[in-house]
Amino acid sequence: MRRSAGCARWIWNQAISEQRRRYAAGEKYAGYAEMCKWLTTWRNAPETIWLSEAPIPPQQQALKRLHEAYQRFFAKAGGYPSFKRHGEEPGLRFPAAAHFQIDQPNQRIKVMKLGWLRIKQSQGINGTPKNLSLSKEGARWFASIQVELPDVLPAAGLEPSLAIDVGLTVFAATSAGVKIKPLLALKRQARYVRRAQKSVSRKVKGSANRKKAICKLGDLHRRIARQREDWLHKLTTELADRHPVIAIEDLRIKNMSASAKGTKDAPGKNIRQKAGLNRSILDAAWGEFGRQLQYKLQWRGGQLVLVEPAYSSQTCAACDHVAAENRKSQALFKCVACGHAENADINAAQVLLQRAKEQWAAGHAAQAGESSPATACGEVVRRRPARKRSDAASVKQESTEVLTRTISLMSTQQESRSL
Predict the structure, then answer these.
(1) Cα separation, 261 vs 267, whole angstroms
(2) Is residue 104 a part of any domain in this protein?
(3) How confident is the model at residue 370 (pLDDT cuts 50, 70, 90)?
(4) What are phi and psi of 359, to 5 degrees?
(5) Residue 364 is part of which domain span?
(6) Could you confirm whether 27 is annotated as catalytic?
(7) pLDDT: which is higher, 260 or 394
(8) Helix 286-299 vs helix 271-284: angle between axes, to the nearest 10 degrees?
(9) Which of 55, 185, 250, 347 is the most buried (most CB within 10 A)?
């Protein structure tokens, strides 16, 4: 499997070199079909005949991913594709069910040109297998099988029944009054990470001991990531089983966790403090929490609603009064207008639920033809998500009419399972 993955990496790098040569010669970009012709030549050439010993589907998939990377570059949605070093193999993907065979009773998979491979199944394989992906993490290989399942009818006419406000001190506060403590997977094992990092820095570069220390550091980070992922899976499964429609904040996590270093002309301030905050935000894994919640609700025929979080921490859930003075502290919310007192995170979750219900009602009224197209600041609010954030319609300034963006999760026929 390592040799097959290395062949895919070589093909990736060779295709980039050929594309650069063509560009320097003034020739046009060669698409996926043309690159597949290169692959046939390389597999038949005497000096690279070793490529034919590896299965061809992963090599074709490497070229397909490279073509997609170039398309993103041309559309200015990504950087120029780079060469892959040793250890950065793209993995092995078999896009057709004819490329592999599954023997569940004996827990093994027969893969094209690789033979029978022993596996340890994390769960049973239900449905019709469609494709297989083999990926390497450290010293372990993982198999991910995509299967086809019967359609799941989406829930109709159900308004959001739960809203979740995420944070750092309290990972998730629900509109039902439940507070969930964060896992803090990285923070709990920070001393072990520092110890492993020091061990790497003390080793001579290029030595075998340094490579071993790097492997130990990588295994530790992978262990922390698996702990975080397992905890999130259990939490999101419980939430998806109890509530068909859930609303969460539409956070721009990439912007929130951006570096504060600035530039040479305009250096940033409080860089170390911001770096610690960024580390805590990424350790909380809000994005992964929303991703898991989204597809698990989809599997059950439910929906996930993304709500604009602006001023939700300063808005009173009882009277809709907005003021910075309402947030007395990090944990206490007390409205200066009506005197409503509540935990700040729970109050914010209740505000998100109200906004989600308003958006839900407005959406059903628009579908029934009971209202004209809504406008905000002179612009027509789009009913489909804009391609870019900058293209989106303006957000209305009134806090009681904050616009929300809803993800309509349609029923799917395919489901990814990791073994």
Answers:
(1) 6
(2) yes
(3) low
(4) -65, -40
(5) 162-180+238-268+287-418
(6) no
(7) 260
(8) 20
(9) 347
Cα pseudo-dihedral 91, 96, 97, 99, rounded to 10: -60
Q: Judge if 115 and 252 occupy the same domain.
A: no
Closest CA to 257 of 232, 218, 287: 287
- Residues 6 or more apart whose Cβ sits within 8 Å of residue 291: none
Tell me if residue 102 falls in helix, strand or coil.
Answer: strand
Tokens of 416: 């990814």
What mean pLDDT do residues 396-411 have? 34
Residues 141 and 242 in one domain: no
Q: How far apart are CA 16 and CA 221, in angstroms?
A: 31
Helix (H) or strand (E) holding 33: helix 32-44
In a domain, 18, yes or no: yes
For residue 190, being part of any structural domain is answered with no
CA-to-CA separations, 81 to 20, 28, 84, in angstroms, rounded: 11, 17, 9
235: confidence class by pLDDT, cuts 50, 70, 90: very high
The two beta strands, 303-307 and 245-249, are parallel
pLDDT in tens, 144-166: 999 998 877 776 678 888 999 99
* Number of domains comprising the chain: 2
The catalytically annotated residue of 89, 165, 283, 342 is 165
Residues 173 and 110 in one domain: no
> Of the listed 249, 308, 320, 415, which one is catalytic?
249
Please confirm, yes or no, whether 265 is among the known catalytic residues.
no
| Together in a domain, 298 and 256 | yes
Give me the catalytic one of 89, 283, 342, 345. Answer: 345
Pair 58, 128 in one domain = yes
Compute the distance between CA of residue 243 and CA of residue 175 in angstroms, rounded to an integer: 12
130, 98 contact by CB (below 8 A): no
If asked whether residues 176 and 99 sit together in one domain, one would say no
345 is catalytic: yes
